[in-house]
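G., before I forget:
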Amino acid sequence: RTPVAMNAFELISKSKGLNLGSLFEK
Amino acid sequence: FSLKRTKHPRGYEEPQVLASETPFTVNEIEALHNLFKKLSTSIINDGLIHKEEFLLALFRNSSKQNLFADRVFYMFDRKRNGVIEFGEFVRSLSIFHPHTPEHEKSSFMFKLYDLDGTGFIQRHELKKMVGALLSETDLGLSEESIEAIVEQTMVEVDTNKDGKIDEEEWKELVAKNPSILKNMTLPYLKEVTLAFPSFVLDSEVDD
């Protein structure tokens, strides 16, 4: 799906700032 | 009574206390303490996670501008004193534990997206967040496209048509579309003792 067809919250959830998994990467 | 005391930084809490209030075991909290020590000494060696250290860990860049990382930091900094202490770190991460109920994850995320702290996600907040996300990508969408995404979402989510999203409407959206919460679960937290195993050597406690 194109971004325009997405729900705004689905789109936002792709932010790297919300991916806390990065804290655990060495 | 023991005279032997270890000096811990401000905000340190005993693993036994944190384990009694979170889904983590004492051993897992000790492993998280190793992660915390690494993060909290990466730039300023004071045992507290400063914003720059948080950004460095997330992006490998301590001066990265990112609205969502700022919001996560703000949510973790429960005392609102500009740093994340160990107790705050563990209690906040516990919301991301695979065993934490969905409603807690959902509520945390609602507050994270409620940028102005009004108890509602308003249209202008949604627009700001969509704009921030698009600036992380090189999609180069027009102002009209951002407006269209926000408008469609408001039509879908703001079911009582008052121009803002309340927590009930948010819960309905999450129930229909659980993938929205996917960032709120970190599988790493079930494996934290494997990811940060050095604690095994200094752990004083058996689970």
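Chain B has a mean pLDDT of 91. The first strand of chain B starts at residue 49 and ends at 50.

More on Monday.
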